[in-house]
Amino acid sequence: MQRHQDKLRCATIGLLCLLCIGFGLYAWQLPMLIGGAVGIVYTAVATTLALCHADPPPVETPLPHAVTASAADRPADTDDTAVLVRRMLAQSRHALLLRKQVVGNLSQDQFLEACEQLHARMGLVPEGEVILRNDGNDEEGEFAGPAAAAAEWRIHVAPVFLDCCAVTNRQYYEFVAAGGYRDMTLWDQQTWPAVLDLVDQTGKPGPAFWQHGRYLPGEDDLPVVGVSWYEAQACARWLGKRLPTGAEWVKAACWPVATDGTAMIQRRFPWGDSLDRSRANLWGSGPNRVVAVGEFPSGASVGGIYQMVGNVWEWNASDFRLGPQQSYGSGAPLKSIRGGAFDTYLDNQATCQFESGEYPLSRRHNIGFRCAIGTCDLVLALPRNEALPMADAEPSTCEVLHV
Amino acid sequence: MTRGALQPMKSDDLAQSASPVACYVCQAANTREAEYCRRCSAPLALAHQALGQRQRPQMVAILGPSGSGKTVYLGMLMDMLSRETHRLQIVARGAFSIGLQQATVSALARCEFPAKTGSEPECWNWMHCEIHHNIAAELPPSREGHARPGSRKRGGAASGPDPSVELVMPDMAGEAILEEVEHPQTFHVVRELLRNSAAALVLIDASELARGQRGPDFAAMKVLSCLRELELRGGEGRIVRRPLALVFTKVDQAEVCRRNPEEFARVHATGTWQYCRQEFVDYAFFAASVVGCCTWLETRGAGRRRMPLRVEPHGIVEPFEWILEKLYPAGRR
Question: Helix (H, G, I), strand (E, B), or coil: what is residue A164?
Fold first, then answer.
């Protein structure tokens, strides 16, 4: 609608300018000629800009509409809503359904089903503090990161849900098939030029190691790899989630416990303090390739989150941290990755604390991602009157946290 | 007044001191107490080690210009094969052989690269190792002038005959290698090693080639021409038959090389590729990387340095296996 109004305004101004030029030529009035010419130039520029900022190509799936649906725009047909919800649940977009802007469109059964899927596929990381270090050594003298300057952060982490498993090829295919690479609203504007280059081995939009827009047969449950940080972020947005911050990720893996209010006990590995290679897919302990996300169950964290160490590195939302005396000598800043991969060689690089970095546009064979969402962004309980909140209602923090 | 005292004659010691020890690399005679060869500066510990073995170790030259990754490659190779996860296993001979492995792995664990190898031969790391294969029948009978793999028991009565080979692989400074190649007789030990080595690994920096620089290509061509000259001068024929593994290093920064090293050589190292085709019989291209990602880091007061962000070795063992296969062909196992 707005675009039509802009076009009409441009056309009117252009017509008036032409009239000015015509009158100026007829009466040989120089100011009229100049004014008309300026108007024509303005119209041309405005029209060009309007075209440049045109809406992105429409997405094949109608799902994104659900994100922004206001109460007035809700589908009138209940069957359509049911189909839509069913489809979103099949696409693992439960978090999107439980967002407070969307949850009002759900029936009670749909809400409960979305909650069930959320709890089945995501683990809750409780509120609390976590210690991140980049001094090179953790409390036991273990090297924890490449930054040379000593620094330690004690960070408070709000309660957050983290995917139990890394995003699989099957899940990522849903994103690709739904037109995720064409829906530019999912991508940061500065990455738009790069999106065209994010193609698979056959030139189709998709991860670097796919072919013809699909993953290879038999790789359904393998974590998706060959995705850049931007692709991971876009897919997370499409799922209604986001990438975890470094603090959230470490807290989920280390599972810190405050002993006397100040001292913290943090595990070096999700299962304890000593490296047990039988619990993780690392160099020399696995088949030397990526395995399915459900394997190595004995290596799960206390919160039931799988493969926080090993199999694939995972993109974090945070930037790769440098020490206070350090800066990048050249090249772009790096994004943080954590967890180690199937080819991680050194033991000290397979700990929960260890942080590595990677260029955000890199599409490596051993980097995947998992998603997170803060509990404050979700509605997880029915209010006392058993009625779902309306889309624009603001649930109180207490309601959310006391689920 | 003088008093006489009885002093036992240590005739054995005297006899041993009097007999010279031949340097392992250049065969020059040295006194037994000497630490380094007076002629080529190679450590005489190698000669002492070799004297104690039933088989004379073969030499494999690790060549390449400065910064091509020789130290990291060799250190990682030793460390990977000393773990019991590979069908090839290495046992270091002498503490000096473990130094390089320790220095490399310790530095990488701190997200640093090991210190640059000094130009003087005394600063080089010499690796003397014994390589075991898990398949007992895989090792061949001896070749003339080459080592005969021994056969001995390891790991208790359960293990069968365990053939092994002994190799010496020096980690030389890249500057010294190129200096000797360009100006012969500058580093005698380099020339002797090039002449006497049974096989050679030439390391070429793929990241520089991928950026369009020709330096690594020229350096490799110089090394190859020197190898050819030395081999043809001493033997017959016009084609070099010494096994030659050309290893593109740092392929984490040149993904296209990882997929097809030979095609990468044809496109980015045209001179080397062409030279190999014309002058060598036994050669193969490989792609290897030790780290997963690198970045340049500027630290106030400490300057700019390259920082390995994580260790993910790929393609390290394959060239070495290929060399072993060439030295001890499977067909004769």
Answer: coil
Hey, are the CB atoms on B295 and A334 less than 8 Å from each other? Answer: yes
Q: How far apart are CA A252 and CA A269, in angstroms?
A: 11
pLDDT category of residue B297 using cuts at 50, 70 and 90:
confident
Long-range contacts of B186-189 (CB under 8 A, 24+ apart): B187/B121, B188/B26, B188/B39, B188/B40, B188/B41, B189/B25, B189/B26, B189/B37, B189/B40, B189/B41, B189/B42, B189/B121
Q: Which two tokens stand for residue A199?
A: 């193609």
Place of tokens 């799960």: A300
pLDDT higher than threshold 60 for residue A159? yes
Would you state the structure tokens that stand for residue B20, as one six-digit string? 């010279």
Nearest to A344 among B83, B308, B312 (CB): B312
Q: Note the residue count of chain A.
A: 403
Tell me which of A379 and B138 has the higher pLDDT.
A379
Q: Could you give the angle at which helices B70-82 and B96-109 cross, rounded to 10 degrees?
A: 100
Of A194, A337, A330, nearest in space to B211 by CA? A330
Q: Across the strands, what pairs with B130?
A: B91, B166
Q: What is the ipTM of this complex?
A: 0.81
Task: Measure A308 CA to nearest chain B CA, in Å.
Answer: 17
Highest mean pLDDT among A190-194, A323-327, B45-49 belongs to A190-194
Residues of chain A whose C-beta is under 8 A from some C-beta in B?
136, 143, 145-146, 148-149, 283-284, 322-323, 325-331, 334, 341, 343-346, 348-349, 356-359, 362, 364, 366
- CA-based R_g, chain A, Å: 26
Chain B residues within an 8 Å CB radius of A334 = 293, 295, 309
Interface residue B303 vs chain A (CB under 8 A)? no
**Structure token pair of residue B293:** 């990602």
Eight-class DSSP state of A388: P
Q: Which residues pair with B168 in a beta bridge?
A: B59, B128
**A335 with A319: CB under 8 angstroms?**
yes
Which tokens hold the place of A35? Answer: 């004014």
Fill in the DSSP letter of residue A224: P
Q: Does B313 touch chain A (CB under 8 A)?
A: yes
- Looking at B179-302, which runs of residues are DSSP E strands? 199-205, 244-249, 283-287, 289-299
